[in-house]
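Sequence in, structure out. Go.
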Amino acid sequence: MRYVSTRGAARAAPLGFTDILLAGLADDGGLYVPLEYPRITALQLQAWARLPYADLAFEVLSRFAADLPADTLRDLCRRTYTAAVFGNGRDPARAAEIAPLRPLGVEGGAALALLELSNGPTLAFKDMAMQLLGQLFEHVLGATGAELNILGATSGDTGSAAEYAMRGRRGLRVFMLTPHGRMSPFQAAQMYSLREPNIFNLAVRGVFDDCQDIVKAVSADAAFKAGQRIGAVNSINWARVVAQVVYYFKGYFAAAPRIGDPVSFTVPSGNFGNVCAGHIARMMGLPIRALVCATNENDVLDEFFRTGVYRVRGAADTFQTSSPSMDISKASNLERFVHDVVGGDPARLAGLWRQVEHHGGFTLDDGAMAAVRERFGFRSGCSSHAHRIATIRDVDQRYGVVIDTHTADGVKVAREHLELGVPMVVLETAQPAKFTEAVEEALGRPAPRPLAFEGIERLPQHFTVIESDVEAVKRFIAAHTGIVAA
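Output:
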């Protein structure tokens, strides 16, 4: 399996998995994609359905990481996906199962269920990929004695998941950009209370998109990136996205009446990484009927899937909502999907993203949008604060299950796309304790919280407030790496 940039610069020299694992963005500003998607046969699907999560992860990832020895990759998966790492489940009887399916009920003739992805160290789905990424980084760096300075941006959960996965690991430093004052108190406390010397939190005066733009600008500076050994953990990193493909297979096997029957998935999404993993699973041959992208009031993705218009917003037009991890108006991973929509044509793809850079967006023609809906199976919808509160209340009253605000966005939109006889799986985003204010508004009581996280908001917090300025971030990184530019 070899990889190229969506924008074409690497076409003459495709790279291996370990090369792009450490690279993040391609040098031309594009995202890495495989030359082709591996296809899974019906017999393989039958065999994979019986595997524990760690071994399922090995089977999926081995199709994308041919340059890693099989025994090494299998060992890394088995060390990552354990009950000890993913045992923060709200139901102790289910703690040993990785990504269990929680059936809710039958609505509109369809079985509705949640795929529980938030039982990892930071109570968010990002742990599912990030814990493996930490193992992969440490292994690859350890083999060469190299160092990596990870630069990331987060609207909430990516940052804590990355820091918990990378803290204390040899050869790794993490510089995480956050939108100052725009995360929930729990999310901020998870990150800012860490005191490991290899973790640096930078609170940017701006919104998430400003943070993401800085990461891209730093990564686009080839000399600085090479000199300071900059890598990425955001979903611009291919390994991060492909590790998330695994739980679509797990959710499918748990929800499908028979292997081969269709299942639909609804995914709360802002940056398009989580639902992009579902697209990859579908391209591999997993029988996914529909991939439903759920947004909040920042509805860039919903607008795109309804109209074909991709229109980014500025900071002033990005709303601060009660599902803050989706307060995003530039969906980085959409580039990977559009690359497939245009048939892998790098020139056409690069032209579309030049329109984004110069005009703030682009419009796909009717033919391309027909492919988006019919060939690739995408649907979408949006939600509001009132919808979230009503959905949290309804799911609690009807099923006795407390969900977080992002998952509520997913359930609300999923209900608009139910199809008779086709199971609908909503990907859970986080445990409700991370957004307890909204949960308390809906239910009149605090969200349930694992004992290990009691009082986390009262811990001392350590972070640096910084202006939304690329050069300021570069200076901070250079001052804290100990690397002297040649």
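Check: The mean pLDDT is 92. The longest helix spans residues 127-144.
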